[in-house]
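[agent] plan:
  1. take the single chain provided in the ticket
  2. run structure prediction with default settings
  3. attach C-alpha coordinates to the ticket
  4. add a short note for the reviewer (M.T.)
[agent] executing step 1
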Amino acid sequence: MKIVAITDIHGRRSKVEELVNVLRGENVDMILIAGDITHFSGAKEAEEVLSPILALNIPVLAVMGNCDGRDVLDFLEQKGISVHEKRVEAKGVGIVGFGGSNITPFSTIWEFSDDTIYLSLTRNYRDGDIVLTHAPPYGTKLDKTHSGIHAGSIGLRRFIEEKQPKLCICGHIHEGRGIERIGNTIAINPGPLARGYYAVIEGDSVELLNLKG
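[agent] step 2 finished; step 3 output follows
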Protein backbone atom coordinates (compact mmCIF):
# COMPACT_ATOMS: atom_id res chain seq x y z
CA MET A 1 0.00 0.00 0.00
CA LYS A 2 1.25 3.46 -0.96
CA ILE A 3 0.24 6.26 1.41
CA VAL A 4 0.88 9.97 0.95
CA ALA A 5 0.97 11.85 4.27
CA ILE A 6 0.61 15.61 4.55
CA THR A 7 0.11 18.09 7.35
CA ASP A 8 0.10 21.79 8.19
CA ILE A 9 -1.18 23.19 4.91
CA HIS A 10 -2.20 26.46 6.63
CA GLY A 11 -4.39 27.59 3.74
CA ARG A 12 -1.73 27.27 1.03
CA ARG A 13 -3.92 25.94 -1.79
CA SER A 14 -1.08 26.58 -4.27
CA LYS A 15 1.00 23.93 -2.49
CA VAL A 16 -1.90 21.50 -2.61
CA GLU A 17 -2.19 22.08 -6.36
CA GLU A 18 1.56 21.43 -6.77
CA LEU A 19 1.23 18.18 -4.83
CA VAL A 20 -1.76 17.09 -6.90
CA ASN A 21 0.25 17.64 -10.07
CA VAL A 22 2.98 15.37 -8.67
CA LEU A 23 0.49 12.67 -7.65
CA ARG A 24 -1.41 12.52 -10.94
CA GLY A 25 -0.56 9.25 -12.60
CA GLU A 26 1.01 7.86 -9.43
CA ASN A 27 -0.42 4.68 -7.96
CA VAL A 28 -1.42 6.17 -4.59
CA ASP A 29 -3.79 4.15 -2.39
CA MET A 30 -4.55 6.71 0.30
CA ILE A 31 -3.89 10.30 1.36
CA LEU A 32 -3.74 11.05 5.10
CA ILE A 33 -3.94 14.65 6.33
CA ALA A 34 -2.72 15.41 9.86
CA GLY A 35 -4.44 18.75 10.41
CA ASP A 36 -3.99 22.52 10.18
CA ILE A 37 -5.68 22.58 6.81
CA THR A 38 -6.42 26.28 7.32
CA HIS A 39 -4.66 29.08 9.14
CA PHE A 40 -7.20 30.04 11.82
CA SER A 41 -9.96 29.94 9.23
CA GLY A 42 -13.11 27.92 8.67
CA ALA A 43 -14.92 25.39 6.53
CA LYS A 44 -15.09 27.57 3.42
CA GLU A 45 -11.29 27.85 3.27
CA ALA A 46 -10.87 24.17 4.13
CA GLU A 47 -13.08 23.23 1.18
CA GLU A 48 -11.12 25.51 -1.18
CA VAL A 49 -7.81 24.12 0.04
CA LEU A 50 -8.76 20.45 -0.13
CA SER A 51 -10.85 20.48 -3.33
CA PRO A 52 -7.89 19.60 -5.63
CA ILE A 53 -7.04 16.58 -3.47
CA LEU A 54 -10.65 15.41 -3.19
CA ALA A 55 -10.96 15.61 -7.00
CA LEU A 56 -8.26 12.93 -7.38
CA ASN A 57 -10.71 10.18 -6.39
CA ILE A 58 -8.15 8.69 -4.03
CA PRO A 59 -9.35 7.78 -0.51
CA VAL A 60 -8.64 10.72 1.82
CA LEU A 61 -8.82 10.72 5.62
CA ALA A 62 -8.08 13.70 7.84
CA VAL A 63 -8.11 15.24 11.27
CA MET A 64 -8.36 18.92 12.10
CA GLY A 65 -5.43 20.79 13.62
CA ASN A 66 -5.35 23.22 16.51
CA CYS A 67 -5.36 26.14 14.04
CA ASP A 68 -8.47 25.01 12.14
CA GLY A 69 -11.75 26.82 12.75
CA ARG A 70 -14.52 25.24 14.80
CA ASP A 71 -16.55 24.35 11.70
CA VAL A 72 -13.67 22.59 9.92
CA LEU A 73 -14.44 19.37 11.81
CA ASP A 74 -18.06 19.64 10.63
CA PHE A 75 -16.81 20.02 7.05
CA LEU A 76 -14.58 16.94 7.34
CA GLU A 77 -17.51 14.97 8.77
CA GLN A 78 -19.82 16.11 5.96
CA LYS A 79 -17.29 15.00 3.38
CA GLY A 80 -16.97 11.63 5.12
CA ILE A 81 -13.22 11.98 5.59
CA SER A 82 -12.90 12.73 9.32
CA VAL A 83 -11.18 10.28 11.66
CA HIS A 84 -11.18 12.53 14.72
CA GLU A 85 -12.09 10.44 17.77
CA LYS A 86 -13.03 7.46 15.61
CA ARG A 87 -11.80 4.48 13.64
CA VAL A 88 -12.34 4.20 9.89
CA GLU A 89 -11.39 1.42 7.49
CA ALA A 90 -10.10 2.25 4.00
CA LYS A 91 -8.55 -0.16 1.51
CA GLY A 92 -8.73 -2.83 4.20
CA VAL A 93 -6.65 -0.81 6.67
CA GLY A 94 -7.91 0.66 9.95
CA ILE A 95 -7.14 4.32 10.67
CA VAL A 96 -7.59 5.75 14.16
CA GLY A 97 -7.45 9.51 14.55
CA PHE A 98 -7.35 12.38 16.96
CA GLY A 99 -7.19 16.02 15.86
CA GLY A 100 -6.21 19.24 17.56
CA SER A 101 -3.29 19.41 19.93
CA ASN A 102 -2.46 18.81 23.54
CA ILE A 103 -2.75 21.91 25.74
CA THR A 104 -0.51 24.80 24.63
CA PRO A 105 0.33 28.18 26.21
CA PHE A 106 -1.46 29.88 23.31
CA SER A 107 -5.09 28.78 23.82
CA THR A 108 -5.57 27.83 20.17
CA ILE A 109 -8.86 26.62 18.72
CA TRP A 110 -8.67 22.87 19.26
CA GLU A 111 -6.77 21.75 22.37
CA PHE A 112 -7.35 18.66 24.52
CA SER A 113 -5.92 17.19 27.69
CA ASP A 114 -3.43 14.36 27.33
CA ASP A 115 -5.84 12.09 29.19
CA THR A 116 -8.53 12.80 26.58
CA ILE A 117 -6.12 12.01 23.73
CA TYR A 118 -4.92 8.81 25.39
CA LEU A 119 -8.39 7.53 26.27
CA SER A 120 -9.85 8.23 22.82
CA LEU A 121 -7.04 6.49 20.96
CA THR A 122 -7.06 3.54 23.37
CA ARG A 123 -10.84 3.14 23.04
CA ASN A 124 -10.86 3.15 19.23
CA TYR A 125 -7.61 1.36 18.37
CA ARG A 126 -7.41 -2.19 17.06
CA ASP A 127 -4.18 -4.08 16.54
CA GLY A 128 -2.58 -3.20 13.22
CA ASP A 129 -4.29 0.19 12.80
CA ILE A 130 -2.52 3.30 11.52
CA VAL A 131 -2.69 6.27 13.91
CA LEU A 132 -3.32 9.76 12.50
CA THR A 133 -2.93 12.69 14.90
CA HIS A 134 -2.15 16.37 14.64
CA ALA A 135 0.02 16.39 17.76
CA PRO A 136 3.31 14.47 17.72
CA PRO A 137 4.35 12.13 20.53
CA TYR A 138 6.17 13.80 23.40
CA GLY A 139 9.91 13.57 23.86
CA THR A 140 10.95 12.92 20.26
CA LYS A 141 12.62 14.92 17.51
CA LEU A 142 9.13 15.24 16.00
CA ASP A 143 7.92 17.51 18.80
CA LYS A 144 11.10 19.53 19.46
CA THR A 145 10.69 23.26 18.87
CA HIS A 146 13.40 25.69 17.74
CA SER A 147 13.88 26.65 21.38
CA GLY A 148 14.57 23.03 22.32
CA ILE A 149 11.28 22.46 24.16
CA HIS A 150 9.38 19.21 23.61
CA ALA A 151 5.79 20.30 22.88
CA GLY A 152 4.12 17.03 21.92
CA SER A 153 1.45 14.93 23.57
CA ILE A 154 2.32 12.84 26.61
CA GLY A 155 -0.99 11.01 26.15
CA LEU A 156 -0.11 10.03 22.59
CA ARG A 157 3.37 8.91 23.70
CA ARG A 158 1.83 6.74 26.44
CA PHE A 159 -0.62 5.22 23.97
CA ILE A 160 2.17 4.41 21.48
CA GLU A 161 4.36 2.84 24.16
CA GLU A 162 1.49 0.64 25.33
CA LYS A 163 -0.14 -0.37 22.03
CA GLN A 164 2.81 -0.19 19.62
CA PRO A 165 0.93 0.65 16.41
CA LYS A 166 3.02 0.06 13.31
CA LEU A 167 2.66 3.65 12.09
CA CYS A 168 1.79 7.07 13.54
CA ILE A 169 1.49 10.10 11.26
CA CYS A 170 1.48 13.52 12.91
CA GLY A 171 2.38 17.18 12.40
CA HIS A 172 1.90 20.39 14.42
CA ILE A 173 5.56 21.18 15.12
CA HIS A 174 6.82 22.51 11.79
CA GLU A 175 10.49 22.20 12.65
CA GLY A 176 9.95 18.62 13.88
CA ARG A 177 10.00 17.11 10.40
CA GLY A 178 11.44 13.64 10.60
CA ILE A 179 11.06 9.96 11.38
CA GLU A 180 11.29 8.48 14.87
CA ARG A 181 11.02 4.93 16.16
CA ILE A 182 9.31 4.31 19.50
CA GLY A 183 9.69 0.60 20.15
CA ASN A 184 8.11 -1.04 17.11
CA THR A 185 6.24 2.11 16.06
CA ILE A 186 7.44 4.33 13.25
CA ALA A 187 6.27 7.91 13.89
CA ILE A 188 6.44 10.39 11.02
CA ASN A 189 6.13 14.17 10.92
CA PRO A 190 6.16 14.92 7.16
CA GLY A 191 6.80 18.63 7.77
CA PRO A 192 4.43 21.39 6.66
CA LEU A 193 3.00 21.18 3.16
CA ALA A 194 2.87 24.99 3.42
CA ARG A 195 6.65 24.77 2.87
CA GLY A 196 6.40 22.02 0.26
CA TYR A 197 7.03 19.00 2.50
CA TYR A 198 5.22 15.66 2.41
CA ALA A 199 5.89 11.97 2.99
CA VAL A 200 5.33 8.78 1.04
CA ILE A 201 5.00 5.50 2.92
CA GLU A 202 5.10 2.23 1.03
CA GLY A 203 5.44 -0.94 3.06
CA ASP A 204 8.39 -0.45 5.42
CA SER A 205 9.81 2.38 3.29
CA VAL A 206 9.30 6.02 4.31
CA GLU A 207 10.44 8.93 2.17
CA LEU A 208 10.40 12.55 3.34
CA LEU A 209 9.98 14.59 0.18
CA ASN A 210 9.89 18.20 -0.98
CA LEU A 211 7.89 19.61 -3.87
CA LYS A 212 11.04 21.45 -4.90
CA GLY A 213 12.68 18.10 -5.60
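[agent] step 4 note for reviewer: The longest helix spans residues 43-54.
[agent] ticket updated
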